[in-house]
Write a structure and sequence with these properties.
single chain, mainly alpha, 2 domains, 3-stranded mixed beta sheet, two-stranded antiparallel sheet, 61% helix, 3% strand, globular
Length: 572
């Protein structure tokens, strides 16, 4: 059995020995060998036919591995500021993994966004399919998928016996997702579609893939049935997790400790500020004082509509390529290997938009994915210009792909295994606002950016409000249920009144907040902390402050919690 990272044997305390980096790199090596899905996400071959151990014993060993790494890190002496920052970041992240495990959060979680069912299925999105061996690996994983699903079932059952069960809303929502993947709900069968375009493969391999897809579909259907008939009846109806649990979740997503009630009230203020700006644009463009009416007018503008998912994908690609071309060498330093971002249509249809990292050697580029809902064939560009900047450059792709590239500044754990939602999503929202500041958004596109910002501010209010069951301010500008306590019903009503988004998306979003406490606010709260960090740097440097240099300094620190980010920037 592997014993976990240890400092190098040759004088680990000697001058010039980069012990922190050595421990971090060793940790990544061990994660690659222990957890095949991580190898797949990094684009490392030789593990694509295997699955991790999702059983209680497997999760316990995973945390033991984390604890050994923490123990190895604590006594190390960083040789420079770069290692000091890396050590702070790694201790903060790994420490939270242990806390979440000890609180029974990770092992018991069923969520419409962040559960094991989604994690296992999404692994196929990153698997290579460019050779017979690659397709053989797909077949092997499909054929063996019942093993991790049965291990998840074992883990959830063990947690349930201890009274640790996710809310019934999340279990039922996950069951419905599984039914869309298996085609039971009338949607396209994900597993059949995965192996459909294989006519150029040998007949024997095609037959193997078809049988493996049938097996995976059946395994997921059985898992969904168990969730519905065995776990759901045991699950609590209360969605709120309470202040103690929520504070831990919030810290895990932000890498910072925030005053939750102050942040809740700030969310109301921020939403009101954004809507005031939106009304001004509505008046300037259409002479309207109604935000939703102005959005409808933008939607009906033929010059802002595209027909066909492939046409829309090509539009995203062109806009992304243009942003990279314009920003490289002017506002950001963008190394050549990361100037490629692929815009892709996802194999699922749940409406999600997301980014996936490049392979470690850049043989697979960073990708922006759009899971177009079934039946949707027209797209409004005014809402999505800012999405391209959020997922691409200067948002996620610039940040994440640069982390992969900067091996001269970041150890391997920083480059490939560390992600903090408040840091990454906060930066992406900051990037949206920056593109407006740089003049890239005409008024209609700016309305789309503000629509996105308002949505994220709403999430701060609802996520904290519903999980802590807080009182709705009596003096809120919307005169919305003053003095009442938040419930999911009130949350949906407030979302509907203040969002230009279709009802199915809003219902999914509400379920997402309730099943992933603390994650949804990390975007807007993360942006808030990024802006505060920039203001602090400007105050420290005075006339010497340079925005491009601030961006370079901040991104060169790599991913880390937002409290460690502010501390590291203060030392630059």
């Amino acid at each position: 059995m592997q014993t976990g990272p240890t400092p190098p044997a040759s004088d680990p305390s000697g001058p010039g020995v980069r012990t922190v980096d050595a421990i971090a790199d060793s940790y990544v090596d061990e994660c690659v060998s222990r957890y095949p899905e991580i190898a797949t996400s990094l684009g490392i071959a030789d593990h694509d036919d295997q699955w991790s151990d999702y059983s209680p014993d497997g999760l316990a060993e995973q945390i033991a591995h984390v604890r050994r790494t923490i123990a190895a890190l604590h006594p190390t002496a960083p040789v420079d500021e770069r290692e000091h920052t890396a050590k702070e970041a790694m201790l903060e992240r790994l420490g939270l993994e242990v806390e979440l495990y000890e609180a029974h959060i990770t092992a018991s979680r069923v969520s419409v966004v962040a559960g094991a069912a989604q994690e296992i299925r999404s692994t196929f999105d990153l698997m290579p399919t460019d050779s017979e061996q690659a397709w053989s690996n797909v077949a092997a994983r499909l054929r063996g998928i019942h093993v991790p699903l049965s291990q998840v079932r074992e883990t959830l059952s063990a947690e349930a016996r201890e009274g640790n069960i996710s809310a019934v809303r999340q279990i039922r929502g996950t069951v419905e997702q599984i039914r869309t993947w298996t085609g039971e709900s009338g949607s396209n069968d994900f597993f059949a579609e995965l192996v459909a375009d294989t006519d150029d493969l040998p007949d024997t391999l095609q037959h193997e893939l078809s049988g493996a897809a049938d097996h995976a579909r059946s395994a997921y259907a059985d898992f969904g049935s168990w969730l519905a008939h065995d776990l759901a009846p045991l699950a609590p109806s209360l969605d709120a997790v309470g202040e103690e649990r929520y504070a831990l979740d919030s810290r895990s997503f932000l890498g910072a400790t925030v005053d939750l009630e102050e942040t809740y009230h700030w969310g109301f203020e921020e939403l009101h500020r954004i809507q005031t700006e939106q009304r001004q644009i509505a008046r300037d463009l259409f002479g309207l004082n109604d935000i939703k009416a102005a959005c409808a007018a933008l939607d009906s503008d033929p010059s802002r509509r595209l027909t066909g998912a492939e046409t829309f994908r090509a539009w995203m690609q062109e806009l992304s390529d243009q942003a990279i071309s314009d920003l490289a060498g002017t506002h950001f330093d963008i190394p050549e290997p990361i100037r490629t971002l692929e815009c892709c249509l996802a194999p699922t249809h749940d409406g999600l938009i997301y980014y996936t990292d490049p392979a470690e050697d850049f043989s697979r580029p960073g990708r922006m994915w759009w899971a177009v809902p079934e039946g949707i064939d027209t797209f409004s560009t005014w809402k999505e210009v800012t999405t391209v900047y959020h997922e691409g450059v200067p948002g996620h792709h610039l940040q994440v792909a640069q982390n992969s590239y900067r091996s001269d500044l970041l150890n391997r754990w920083q480059r490939k295994l560390c992600f903090v939602s408040g840091h990454g999503e906060g930066w992406a929202l900051y990037a949206e606002r920056l593109m407006d500041d740089l003049g890239y958004l005409e008024p209609g596109d700016r309305m789309g950016m503000l629509d996105s910002q308002a949505f994220r501010a709403l999430r701060v209010v609802l996520d904290i409000g519903m999980h802590l069951q807080l009182e709705i301010p009596r003096d809120n500008p919307w005169k919305f249920r003053p003095g009442e306590r938040w419930t999911p019903t009130a949350g949906f009503e407030f979302l509907s009144a203040n969002c230009y988004v279709d009802e199915p998306t809003l219902r999914f979003e509400l379920d997402r907040y309730l099943g992933w406490p603390g994650q949804a606010p990390s975007y807007k709260v993360g942006e808030r902390i990024w802006l505060e960090a920039r203001d602090e740097a400007r105050a420290r440097k005075g006339a010497a402050f340079d925005l491009r240099q601030f961006h370079a300094d901040a991104l060169n620190l790599g991913p880390l919690g937002l409290d460690p980010l502010r501390a590291a920037l203060a030392r630059i």
